[in-house]
Amino acid sequence: ARPVKLSVHVHSYGKNRKLLLSRDITAVELAEAMRRDFVANVSHEIRTPLTVLSGFIETLQTLPLKEPERARYLALMAQQSLRMQTLVNDLLTLSRLEGSPFPGVNDWMTTSALLVQCEQEARALSPLIAPHGHQLTFDAGPACEIAGVQTELYSAMSNLVTNAVRYTPEGGTVQVSWTLLDDGRGEFRVKDSGPGIAPEHLPRLTERFYRIDRSRSRETGGTGLGLAIVKHVLQRHGAELHIESQPGQGSSFSIIFPAARVRRIQAA
Ligand code: ADP
After folding, report:
1. Angle subtended at Cα 133 by Cα 131 and Cα 139, rounded to the nearest 5 degrees
2. Strands 173-180, 186-192: parallel, antiparallel or unpaired by DSSP?
3. Where is the secretion signal located (predicted)?
4. Which atom of ligand 1 is nearest to the CA of 217?
5. Is 49 close to ligand 1, i.e. is its CB under 6 Å away?
6. Which of 126, 149, 178, 203 has the fewest Cβ atoms within 10 angstroms?
7. What does the alpha-carbon distance between residue 48 and residue 50 come to, in Å, rounded to a whole number?
8. Neighbours of 23 (CB within 10 A)
């Protein structure tokens, strides 16, 4: 049981009559503390690239830099501004997901097309993360369609795939698969041979800005918001996220879609 904090008001009325009003304010305080944390985190995430950018601008203004030095500085500045753009985009996505009700309109999209999109993204990203790349496999499984909002579902799936690529060292494996479970539910699974995750981190991974390896996350373009976005998308679709991992044994992230959102189709 969680500790409860009560605010108590005593109202006197009539002669010798008192009314005691109590209200649980634990939840209110908790929400307020979370909001403060969030604002502090966002400010910090924006301040870091801004500081770097101002430093570079000052250098360019004061030192008569020649090519290729000048070009190198400009490339680093572009990288920092891209980082801020990515962060702002993720923040907007998250606030849209949290603030708006589920549209209720569902597209049926083929799982094979979603996997192809994930594959293209992973193959483009892998050599940027590790020069010799990773061993990537994609198993489209039985031909199916799933119901949902295409942009949201793709962003959830691609977040899991790009995380696997980003956290797995050069030459490691990333296996992506789609399977139909016996009870009609569908499983989109991303398994990697990366560093794995200690059990104490697992329950907190979908919190906004929660990161285990801060520098690896930053180096590879992470904002710390990816899994928070995944969590919200899945909630809206009635789907679940399952994570299995052990340090040194790689990780497996699965999205389980309810049977009502999955249907088999004729293979093309
Ligand atoms: P980030 O932008 O930092 O990757 P995410 O919300 O996507 O943010 O993930 C949160 C954290 O979970 C990451 O910082 C990383 O520490 C951990 N993580 C996510 N995916 C993996 C993975 N496949 N292997 C190991 N750690 C992971």
Report:
1. 165
2. antiparallel
3. none
4. 3
5. no
6. 203
7. 5
8. 10
